Amino acid sequence: MSESDMAIIKPEMMKSYIWLETSDGSIQQVEQEVAMFCPLICHQALQKGGGSSKNNAISLPQKVNPAMLSLIFDYCRFHQLPGRSNKERKVYDEKFMRMDTKRLCELTSAADSLQLKPLVDLTSRALARIIEGKTPEEIREIFHLPDDLTEEEKLEPLKNTMDDPRIRLLNRLYAKKRKELKERAKLKSIEVEERVDERSVDDLLSFINGRDHKVVNTSKSKKKNKKRKEHKNGTCKVSNKDSHNLHSKQRSVDETSSSLGGVSNLHNIEDDIFSKKAEFEDGYIDDEIDPALKEMLDREVEDFARRLNSSWVLSVGQERQPVHFSINGNGDTRRLTGPAARHK
Amino acid sequence: MKTRIDDQSKPQTMIQEKYTKRYQNLKVAEALSNNHLYPFACNELSSIIDLGYSQLPKDLKAFIFRDCLSAFRLLPDMNTSAAVSAANLLVKSVESAFPKQKKNLAIVEFKQAKVALKRRTKSHDEHIDLPSLPQDILVHIFSFLDVYSLLSSSQVSRSWNQATSEGSLWRSLFDLHFSHKVSIHIHPGFDWREAFKNEYILYKSSKMLRSGRGYCSYCDSVVWHDNLRCPKKQCRLKSGKKPLDLMLTHQVVNYLLGTTSSSDESDSEDEAVRGLWAYPTLQ
């Protein structure tokens, strides 16, 4: 039977129905003109003669579950009637779109698999309106999406993030920068003490600075190159021993020059540095930096990422020797002797 | 007898009405109920209050007060961090400029809103599994987004990130923002997103887009632009591909008050521009 025949016969006969089977196996029948609104069903019915009987039901794509199907058919039933005005349709559409995000997503998938473009457009616009003006975290919450991008990927959206040597470098430098800023903060407080107690604790200070210098270098070289791990581990052990000596020395100095308030501060700072060293020996730093520092670090990394993007001169070979940041403050100048110094 | 007509003979009320009419045409109140425009509208209210509350005619002051109250009342519905920051900014402006009684009323409203916000339980810890949308649908959805939202979306998850790298999205954004200013040479493998980013930084678009406002020459009015277009359909049809002239917030305030103050935004442009590509925000 051609379509025109069906059109003629319809008013006289009962409404004809089309049989449809959803993904869960249930079979139902729907008024023909409603179902035919969906291009997929239309195509199946006309070209392959499906849906004419219960046994010959058109099987619908997997994404179309019964709930969604009834929604879609509500939509179709309303819109397939030619007599509706544009305004009526618009009002209906707006009302129709009021549902929670989950159903909206399901509906979009279902409509797409049935190739019902007007409904796909409608739902897509509705979803876009939900996404508009929200932060990534908020979007993730609404759509229950996993946070599976690394920090670096978020920083500069790139396609092949895995293979990009620049990204690997950025990873490395991000961690290094965090560490450096941490140290800078600590060294700064040492600096302050230095100026105050300069004359009286000169000897002690230069010794500590020499200490510092070694400690920092050790951690730095560890970051730099995995090959040097053994060497570095050796130095770590050595420095541990030294540190003990220093500790006892310092204590004696403490007792003798207790009038100088600054020294006890230095003592504490040393403790920090040693405990931090212990951290490094265990592996890479964990993320327990306080939020204010983290923000500053993030901004620094952002800055770096921008510089990295704008002046792309690092080749793969240079990865082994990362650029030294020019950090203002005496801490830096003291550090850059020995193998660590490349650019100064 | 000839009567000379000069401004001074105009009754005071007519001048007041002029400002009130302008304010109503700005449609700030309507924008407050729009999820996307709420932060823009709050920022504009803040600016108006900061730049000239005391000079406003009495009627206009009443309107501003009313809109501030409704801004706070609507805050719990908005429930985005951008909305909260905008409301905080607004309450600061209110605190410094409003007379005592109005100030107290507004602050009470604000505090109630904050409480209501807290009460709204966030994600209900149901391990709902939303059906994952196929890539081509994601791209279709993203095609309706403005540049900020698109960048936000790119940081949501891996699949969304992939969808946002689709060249056609950035091509249409490029056309929208820059086609009337820039002509480019396309070649195979042309990266539209890079091109967009370069022009964006060059033209300091971040600054211009911060207000949400544009001037439409077809309807001769200051409007909340819909992705750089006039929200009125007739204007869109007439203007074709050409985007609106974007306006800064202080320009909008100048228009309202009939003044010519200059902007004293002290934020560093570089940081703002850079910030977009790392962590997009509306501020």
From TrEMBL, chain A:
Q: Which InterPro entries match?
A: SKP1, SKP1-like, SKP1-like_dim_sf, SKP1/BTB/POZ_sf, Skp1_comp_dimer
Spell out the residue ranges making up region: Disordered: 215-262
The primary site where this protein sits is nucleus
Q: Where is the SKP1 component dimerisation domain?
A: 117-155
| Pathway named in the protein's UniProt entry | Protein modification; protein ubiquitination
Q: What does the entry list under GO cellular component?
A: nucleus
Keywords annotated in UniProt: Nucleus, Ubl conjugation pathway
The processes (GO biological process) annotated in the record are: jasmonic acid mediated signaling pathway; protein ubiquitination; ubiquitin-dependent protein catabolic process
Q: Per the record, a Pfam family?
A: Skp1
Q: Where in the cell is it found?
A: Nucleus
Basic residues: bias regions: 220-231
Domain of life (superkingdom): Eukaryota
Description of how the protein assembles with itself and partners? Part of a SCF (SKP1-cullin-F-box) protein ligase complex.
Role according to the record: Involved in ubiquitination and subsequent proteasomal degradation of target proteins. Together with CUL1, RBX1 and a F-box protein, it forms a SCF E3 ubiquitin ligase complex. The functional specificity of this complex depends on the type of F-box protein. In the SCF complex, it serves as an adapter that links the F-box protein to CUL1.
Q: Which family does it belong to?
A: Belongs to the SKP1 family.
**Protein name according to UniProt:** SKP1 component dimerisation domain-containing protein
Automatic annotation (TrEMBL), chain B:
Can you tell which superkingdom this protein's organism belongs to? Eukaryota
Q: Signal peptide location in the record?
A: none
InterPro entries (UniProt xref)? At5g52880_ARM (IPR057039), F-box-like_dom_sf (IPR036047), F-box_dom (IPR001810)
Under SUPFAM superfamilies, the record lists: F-box domain (SSF81383)
Please report the stretch or stretches of sequence annotated as the F-box domain: 127-173
Q: What is this protein called?
A: F-box domain-containing protein
